[in-house]
Amino acid sequence: MSLGHAMHSWLTNKNQPYSNSNYTTFLAEIASTFNENLLMDYLLKNETDDNLKLFIIDQFLERARQTIYRQALFAEFELAMHQKVEEGKTLTADWLNKKYLELTRLYYGHDKGVTLVDDYIEIEWSKIPHFFYNFYVFQYSTGIISSMALSQNIITGKSGAVDKYLGMLKSGNSDYSIKLLQNAGVDMMTSDPYDAAFKRFDDLVAEMEKIYERVSKK
Length: 218
Known about the structure:
By secondary structure, the protein is an all-alpha fold.
């Protein structure tokens, strides 16, 4: 994560004038997770210890759950907060507890028996400082989806993928983020990156199941 941010800052400061040398949160979150995707792919291809492979996949899937799925939940909760205030209504602890528990149970399938979400989860919102910043948590989700698509372009040997990605890191704020990302080879205005991210998640779950079956037979 820190390496990705450092690389991004170094490249944009080296290649952009001061006025464009910063970058948006959206692009920052792409750089933050990009190298982690490449490292995981390398480790899975070269590691021979099945138990370590299971650990690597488990860590990635949990991070993906927290970053894609949970941050989308957070964003919807934060949006509901803003909407209530814009309606001229008051945010009370009781309302926040009720709304947070309602959304968490919806996202995790509580009523359908998928995951049990206990009542005490209703106060979890109170320890998450992001809700009191500018509305941006959804960019964790879009950022990792973008980085998964960009890293897959490189892993699969897509022509020019490396140079295009580095070009994005060098671009700073020289254009709109969505345009810079399109130039790098990923268009978040389409469903393709999202479909690819969820397919990658499914593929890793399938790989974990195969490894677990192999390990359990030893």
